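Escalated from tier 1: fe (ii) ion holo job.
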Amino acid sequence: MNNVNGILMEWQRSVVGSTFSQSPNTYRSTLQKAIGDAEDWAPLMAPVVRRYFERPGLIASEFFRHSVTEGIGAKTILHVADNFAGPGLQSQMRRHAQDELRHSKLFMALSRYHEREYTENLEPAVAENDQFIEHFSGEVEWFLCDTHIAELRNVVMLTLYMEGAKATNASSWVIKTLSKVLSDERRHVTYTLPYVMNLLDADSANVAEFISTFKHYAILSRGDVERLAALV
Ligand SMILES: [Fe+2]
Ligand SMILES: [Fe+2]
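Tier 2 regenerated the structure:
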């Protein structure tokens, strides 16, 4: 399975039986529309990821990048949880931040498994996020919705990583570690889901915003494909 729609439909099936299966369901129709409107970057990324796994130094460099971005995610989520979230959501978000911190460590371990072929300067990304944290004005619902869409992207990306690892006979430790991260990412999509569903039901402007944010993340992912493809 290497297209966005197929991978996300698989996730949807896993949450059937929850509030998600209620009908009418603005979320479900919005997600379908968003997937239809955005470029499907997964079939482009799948062969590139596979080539990375064939060159351990390259995949090690990419794992290093993920370690940094997961650290950025952990710091941001904890900041929003501690300063803006109500009690119930706060504990869910704190757990989420702990997961991302663990992912940062796991990706660092995965990166160290092979020698990195290149080292990227990721300080600008860290600085940019620090700016975001400093100016965040407390729209927790929108933060959760943006996070939800970013996590949808993570689910697709990790699924492609799992397939790349399996196709190139990566060690069982590598496959097991990626699978742990993937199952956490699926949980992050699922716990944010009821908040996103409420937001979409509340106002049709939020539906349009969801679709455009989903498209924005697809553009970022397409950029990732190009960045990765340039090296193989
Ligand atoms: Fe993560
Ligand atoms: Fe996550």
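The pocket of fe (ii) ion (ligand 2) is lined by residues 100, 151, 154, 185, 188 (CB under 6 Å).
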